[in-house]
Automatic annotation (TrEMBL):
Gene3D superfamilies: Winged helix-like DNA-binding domain superfamily/Winged helix DNA-binding domain. Residues 1-150 form the HTH marR-type domain. It comes from Blautia segnis. InterPro entries: HTH_MarR-typ, WH-like_DNA-bd_sf, WH_DNA-bd_sf. Keywords: DNA-binding, Transcription, Transcription regulation. GO terms for molecular function: DNA binding; DNA-binding transcription factor activity. This is MarR family transcriptional regulator.
């Protein structure tokens, strides 16, 4: 096998990322929602609610404004309710309404199921490799990003 160039590698990594995004975009579209809305429903379903918007943003690696817009739409549609967090007056926790639980069952649960079927089609070694090399690559990218930001900071 010939050595891959940076350009070839970069193109393939970006292609994997974009194909992954496309799968979830198509699922969200199929269910008549945005990707962010599905991400929120998925996260709340997976974690039994009780998270704040800030925690949601951090966990999903999404911008606050993007999450806020999606939460407002989901709340307006009666899918979620935001309740005052007892520990912080400014903070509200996110919970499903009955309508939200039903929506999650008809949208997120089928996504969980297809992800589980895909998981089962990978060997144990393939699963480990996906995680190991995915995290290895992102760790190196983050390290290089920090170096770049630090260099730019010193120039200012």
């Amino acid at each position: 096998m010939k050595e891959m160039t940076f350009e070839e590698f970069s193109r393939e990594v970006n292609n994997i990322y974009k194909k992954n995004c496309e799968v979830y975009y198509k699922l969200a579209s199929h269910f008549g929602m945005t990707e962010t809305m599905v991400d929120i429903l998925y996260f709340v379903r997976e974690n039994d609610g009780g998270y704040t918007q800030a925690q949601l943003c951090e966990s999903l690696h999404l911008r606050k404004q993007t999450v806020n817009s999606a939460l407002k739409k989901l709340e307006k549609d009666g899918v979620i309710c935001l309740s005052q967090d007892s520990g912080n007056k400014k903070s509200k926790t996110i919970h499903f309404t009955e309508k939200g639980k039903e929506l999650a069952q008809s949208t997120v649960d089928p996504i969980f199921e297809l992800e589980q079927r895909a998981f089962k089609r990978l060997t144990s070694q393939e699963r480990e490799n996906v995680l190991y090399y995915g995290y290895r690559h992102i760790d190196i990218l983050e390290d290089e990003m920090k170096k770049l930001l630090e260099r730019n900071k010193k120039k200012q």
